[in-house]
Amino acid sequence: MQKETLFGKTLDELKQISVELELPAYTGGQIAYWLYKTDVTSFGEMTNLSKMVRGLLEEKYDFGVKAPAKVSESTDGTKKYLFTTGTGKFIEAAYIPDGKRHTLCVSSQVGCKMGCLFCMTGKQGFQGHLSPGEILNQVRSIPERKQITNIVYMGMGEPFDNLDAVMSSLEILTAEYGFAISVRKVTVSTIGIVPAMKVFLEKSKCNLAVSLHTPFEDERRRLMPIQNVYPLKDVISTIQAYDLGKYRRVSFEYIMFKGVNDSRRHVNELARLLNKVRSRINLIRFHPIPGTPLECSDEAAIADFQQALNDKGIVTTLRASRGQDIEAACGLLSTKELVKMQQPD
Predict the structure, then answer these.
(1) At 260, is the secondary structure helix, strand, or coil?
(2) In the chain, where do the E strands start and end?
(3) Are residues 118 and 18 in the same domain?
(4) Does residue 11 sit in the same domain as residue 102?
(5) Mean pLDDT of the chain
(6) Do 52 and 81 fall into the same domain?
(7) How do the residues of the chain divide into helix, strand and coil, expressed in percent and rounded to 5?
């Protein structure tokens, strides 16, 4: 039987495990230090624990840190890491250096069940949730770990469809006993699962990003089936109901689709929809994926759209396209590995 892993356990969980092993509760804090503050990868290296305790942990648990299975590097410095999961599937994380900012984009699920028209990961279908440890392992095990300045939950999967694991991973990322990363440097993206979004806004101080892509409900329904369950108006009203404080940020992701969502009509409706939300819009160029009719807006249309939104008083930025030569569309690398694994020799 597969052992349970300790990496990815919160401090309270580690203390409870220590008590169950008839050890002092403070042993949990010692284990947390070795898991999250050091580079060790085995219980034997936890030198302030007795040999008996280390042996007990070795007998009953796996450490839980796993190196990437593959890395692809772009000419622009972006790296895409492939990881295997405990179920033998594949996930990806993207490391994106940009001057002093070094962002890691992590996955929260294997595949995705949301079926957005523009997303390669959704074409895999849903294959499973990641554990808190599997989410955090993407941070812990890459060579650039100590250079990371920002973490975004914008990889494979819908984070709020795996809420418990994501919330545990956020606690460990930002807690003093864990990685101690500032909450202002962590952003979680969602397509707008309202009940889970409420939990996140209440219990976490990390930043929120919402996949918007059009301000019109009928258009959004064609792009994103979730619109049938949680309408955009409910997503916006939920955000408006929370005092986000001075520093917490909400951003709206807006992929530019030619002839679909790039008109002046869309600018005007965005301004109306977001006029009471302190936020920014991140425009994103669409990179075509197999099996979709969508195309990216041309550069002139994107520039005009951005300027028009800024003129309306909405802070609007254009996200740089990175890693295109290593198949930047999230899910392409893992899909290819999955297909390769399933092919007969």
Answers:
(1) coil
(2) 4-5, 61-62, 70-73, 79-84, 90-98, 101-105, 109-111, 126-129, 150-153, 186-190, 207-211, 250-256, 279-285, 315-319
(3) no
(4) no
(5) 92
(6) no
(7) 40, 20, 40
pTM: 0.94
> What's the domain count of the chain?
2
Residues 181, 42 share a domain: no
- Look up 330 and say whether it is catalytic: yes
Instruction: Tokens 């403070």: give the residue.
Output: 26
Q: Would you give the DSSP letter of residue 219?
A: H
- Of 92, 134, 158, 327, which is the active-site residue? 92
Asked if residues 43 and 33 have their Cβ atoms less than 8 Å apart, the reply is: no
Q: Say which of 112, 116, 296, 330 is annotated catalytic.
A: 330
Residue range of the domain that includes 259: 70-342
Q: What is the pLDDT of residues 77-96, one digit of tens each?
A: 999 999 999 888 999 999 99
Question: Is 158 a catalytic site residue?
Answer: no
pLDDT in tens, 280-333: 999 999 988 887 889 999 999 999 999 999 999 999 999 988 777 776 556 565
Residues 323 and 234 in one domain: yes
